[in-house]
Description:
- There is one protein chain.
- By secondary structure, the protein is mainly β.
- The chain contains one helix and 26 strands.
Amino acid sequence: MPYCRRCGTKLDEDAHFCLRCGTxxxxxxxxxxxxxxxxxxxxxxKEPLVIAAVALIAILLATVVVVAIIAAPVDxxxxxxxxQDSHQSINTLNLNVQxxxxxxxxxxxxxxxxxxxxxxxxxGSRGILDSNxxxxxxxxxxxxxxxxxxxxxxxxxxxxxxxxFQVTCTVYVNPALNxxxxxxxxxxxxxxxxxxxxxxxxVNLQANAGNVEVNLQNFTISGNxxxxxSAGSVYYGLSQASVLGNQTVxxxxxxxxxxxxxxxxxxxxxxxxxxxxxNVGSVNVGLVIxxxxxxxxxxxxxxxxxxxxxAQNFSGDQSPIQSDNxxxxxxxxxxxxxxxxxxNINAAYQSSSGPSLKN
Length: 359
């Protein structure tokens, strides 16, 4: 209940004046408290380059960790497969080998009771996402009219994280057979060695990336030979061949050296034409002839290459040069060519006592 602010008399709730002294009754209207807005916090300054760099580093670190986990070898892989053929009454072997990434070695060697023996081996380790069987080898052998045709294919699974994985394919062929050898690889080295005398009706060795090497001794050529690689070196070694008819040897590399080392001191039953060519790299000619074997060497280089000849008992001025007995009863004709590189010739005709050529 209100009281008069002057005399203290009690007043009615709705009184406007004091009934005793007439003082007006004061009416109090509450004033709302003043609310002072809070000062907004100062925003953190954003640096786009710094934030982007931090985010990128975080992503890279996370990626490295994930890749390391995936790429880590989970177990080792050892693969071994042997294929062979023992058909009777075979006189000719057609061998076809195709490989993704492998070293393929062809060897002429006597194997009792076998026309051919193929041993494919692989070793390495695989990642968590790699196949449990990183290598697949298929083998077929068919015969018709005393001719054996063997096809083998070496395929690798798509193993991005396979570590130090190596595949080798060793092929032993019966040297008593007439041999037609065809080998192609996407990557890997190809070799052909005649440990025993053999008859080659045809040889075709081709690598997309890798070296191609042939070493043949006391063998017979009754067909053409081709050794080619896109990226790698080519080596052709020949010693005392029997050449039946006029045959051709093609040695070719797109990027890499081409080297031949030929020794022929016994008469051949025809002419051997050797074509050596590389786009980028040197051509090296090693030649020793004697008796009724003559030779002629024609060389051609690009603007940046040169011809170096060290020839005994040859005549001519760098290109062409020919042995003192050329043309002979049997001849070796060599054509060497490079677009970017040198041609190095070391040749000798041993029987003649004529002058030497040195340039």
